[in-house]
Amino acid sequence: MSTQTIRTVYLNGAFLPENEAHLSIFDRGFLFGDGIYEVTAVLDGKLIDSPLHMARLERSVGEIGGRLPVSTDEIVAIEKRLIAENDLVEGLIYLQFTRGVEDRNFLYSEDLAPTLLMFTQAKTLEHVAAVERGVKVKIVPDQRWARRDIKSVCLLPQVLAKRAAKADGFDEAWMEEDGLITEGASSTAYIVTQDGHIVTRGLSEATLPGCTRLAILQLAQETGLPVEERAFSVEEALSAREACLTSATNFIVPITTIDGQPVGDGTPGPIFKRLRALYMEHARRTAV
């Protein structure tokens, strides 16, 4: 009989077996979605783009008027210990912050002790089939709240978007608003124009500031690949030369079909391949 490995997780100052870690039913993250999360990739047992994720975590927590119970340096140290204790070579570290625990009330007390949870998740990130075959994207309406720049745990619209995409045989959903693509349900969206320009939406409250996005754009600019940070339309996406997506859970993968129509010749293109190679080299060079 096989036995499942019990992970060590971190919860509110303690390292615990996952089956001994418990949250209150009165946690505001559970009752109101009053919380923030971060996901950091792990490759070769090291954290990828960790400073970018910690900066975004601090910003998101600040935007909801919260306060982290420990410093980001301490968080990184906790993550490294979880990687070691769980023998994680490749996968993810998930972090969730909530405002804390008290009886249900829309108005919260100012002196609440925040909840801080972290756990590891093994996942193949580098050698995945999607890199060779590409992924299929379905365009769906964007039904999220206005502050999408905050990495909130309120992910129901994204859950429904991904479910709708999967039901129709697609791998990811691209969300559309007023004829323009905002972003993927769990990724940043890019197209490559016919003249070879990489286009992705500029930062605003309409989209999440992706950490992998930031690294990819910096690498593109450093190597002379032309980048345009602007909104692009559904029509532009359908006529693009290439398309791709980025996220901490995927790094960068090509999109070969949008709404059933092939992108370019329907295979991963040369600009995607160049970006993927640049990012993988960057990830290993800067991992901590």
Question: Could you characterize the architecture of this molecule?
Answer:
The protein is an alpha+beta fold. It has helices at 28-32, 50-63, 72-85, 129-133, 156-167, 211-222, 234-238, 270-286; strands at 8-11, 14-17, 35-43, 46-47, 90-98, 115-122, 135-141, 172-177, 180-184, 188-192, 198-200, 227-229, 232-233, 242-247, 251-258, 261-262. Strands 7, 8, 9, 10, 11, 12, 13, 14, 15 and 16 form a ten-stranded mixed β-sheet that branches. A six-stranded antiparallel β-sheet has the order 2-1-6-5-3-4. Helix 6 (211-222) crosses helix 8 (270-286). The chain is globular and about 55 Å long. It starts with 7 loop residues before the first strand and ends with a helix.
